Amino acid sequence: MSYDYSGKTVFVSGGTSGINLGIAHGFAKAGAKLAVMSRSQDKVDAAIAELKAHGGEVIGFAADVRDYAAVDAAFKDTSLRLGNIDVLISGAAGNFPSPAMGISPNGFKSVVDIDLLGTFHVVRAAFPYLTKPGASVINISAPQAWIALEFQMHVCAAKAGVDMVTRVAAIEWGPLGVRVNSISPGPIEGTEGMRRLAPNERATELVRDSVPMGCFGSTDDIAQAAMWLSSPLARYVTGVVLPVDGGWSLGGVTAMGSGIKKAMGG
Ligand code: NAP
Ligand code: COA
Asked: Are 90 and 68 within 8 A, CB to CB?
């Protein structure tokens, strides 16, 4: 199945590495104009160079999603240079494994500020520039949003909030023809998230064995889901949290908690 996003503008926050960059590649290959945003100017420059190889227009912003003024400026600039935003992906996030008592107040705040407040900043600042009707907003969630997982109290709390941002925005913006959904990826091979949560071969095996489909997902699996969800084929789908995880969230996710515990010597 291939999609045609030519003439469309896609903005990906956190779109300079891993899953979000994979999503950006999917849309760029399908002909879209791309804007990506993350903190590191080097990562932004590298992502722009990679994405331009697909032949379309690509711009980027070095900005922290915790800084509302910087996020707001990025959307204003995108709308001036690439037009209204047809697809918005909010995927910037931070994670580290730690038992609750090892998370300082500032550590908890950092993750909540990046994942939850950052998602609010992104969708709020983008709103005036979304194509109405027709825009698709996708927040990148995680199984931690509804499955309690040891060593992940901060991420569980933040991602649960992200899914509520999705649901409330879906209700408020539905009448304007803007659909808002979350995608909840399973364990995705070769990503920073997995390097942090399954940092050795034993933990990697434990995660793989806990997925009903018996394998890790790829960044392209998530890109395909995002392209379907943003297409007219999904015109009546809004306010959902879509797991793209080989069945992991049916129960296997909790095995990762024991994996992290073992990897940390617990
Ligand atoms: P990643 O490569 O580290 O992606 C995170 C992105 O967010 C990077 O581009 C990073 O770039 C950016 N970022 C981080 N903090 C930021 C901030 N304060 N402001 C702006 N940008 C910021 O990790 P990933 O594993 O691919 O994860 C991507 C998304 O998928 C996350 O939302 C994560 O929760 C979700 N997820 C991942 C998995 C998995 O298996 N990996 C599973 C479930 C859900 P800079 O460093 O340049 O800022
Ligand atoms: N265990 C416990 N606390 C940790 C930690 C760890 N492994 N890593 C960071 N922290 C704490 C810090 O000690 C600090 O708290 P303190 O001021 O009380 O000491 C707090 O978290 C903030 O750390 P800092 O490095 O200043 O934050 P930052 O805003 O620069 O970075 C992070 C945010 C910590 C989430 C960082 O890991 C990051 O930038 N991650 C982005 C990439 C990523 O996580 N990818 C995977 C996505 S799923």
From this structure: no
